[in-house]
Design goal:
The structure holds two protein chains of two kinds. By secondary structure, chain A is an all-beta fold. Chain A contains no helices and nine strands. Classes of the chains: A mainly beta, B mainly beta. At the A-B interface, strand 7 and strand 8 of A face strand 5 and strand 10 of B.
Chain lengths: 112, 118
């Protein structure tokens, strides 16, 4: 199963909004509403930020939102803050294996 | 509060078998709502799903690793385990365990670095 495609890096200034894309195929992102997003700070474990394309777990800031169009999912972070600087990974269910999961390559977000 | 903790050797020799255990506290591993899984991250690289297990013992593996992976569960100890055979340097990674709802990993353990080297 091939990894989902994310931009390697992105940057933004405090207060701005940024959108990270995650492109897959009809066998994963495009075929199912099972896209998740994870935030990972250096040396730390990933943290679930968005699940089922648009849903936020309890305790996650509403500055984080998710969407999907066709084979591409997106994570939008509004009102960028210094603490948002981290790596972000998308993931999706994949029909290529039972209960299979495929991750994106990750996007390093820098807050200028 | 649910916590997961990985444990096992930090150094494994090439061609040998990597063995890790994840101890779950704060919830029963026999919960019917959840699966439990392993994910790895080579140094400086992205995440890779290894496989998942249900408390009943049903397993689901990444096809790219399936021939070398065994995941098992011990409900009496509230633990699940990973074995990866015939390891090479390419298996050097931080290995995480996590609880899974549908295909969402939450929460994760802190991770443990396993280095494959002679």
């Amino acid at each position: 199963q091939s990894a989902l495609t994310q931009p390697a890096s992105m940057s933004g200034s405090p207060g701005q909004s940024i959108t990270i894309s995650c492109t897959g195929t009809s066998s994963d992102v495009g075929g199912y509403n099972y896209v998740s997003w994870y935030q990972q700070h250096p040396g730390k474990a990933p943290k679930l930020m968005i699940y089922d394309v648009t849903n936020r777990p309890s305790g996650v800031s509403d500055r984080f939102s998710g969407s999907k169009s066709g084979n591409t999912a997106s994570l939008t972070i509004s009102g960028l803050q210094a603490e948002d600087e981290a790596d972000y990974y998308c993931s999706s269910y994949t029909s290529t294996s039972t209960l299979g999961v495929v991750f994106g390559g990750g996007t390093k977000l820098t807050v200028l | 509060q649910l916590q997961l903790q990985e444990s096992g050797p930090g150094l494994v020799k090439p061609s040998e078998t990597l063995s890790l255990t994840c101890t779950v506290s704060g919830d029963s591993i026999s919960s019917t709502n959840y699966y439990w899984g392993w994910i790895r991250q080579p140094p400086g690289k992205g995440l890779e799903w290894i496989g998942s297990i249900y408390y009943s013992g049903s397993t689901y593996y990444n096809p790219s690793l399936k021939s070398r992976v065994t995941i098992s569960v011990d409900t009496s100890k509230n633990q699940f385990s990973l074995k990866l055979s015939s390891v090479t340097a390419a298996d050097t990674a931080v290995y995480y365990c996590a609880r899974i709802l549908a295909v969402n990993f939450d929460p994760w353990g802190q991770g443990t670095l396993v280095t494959v080297s002679s």
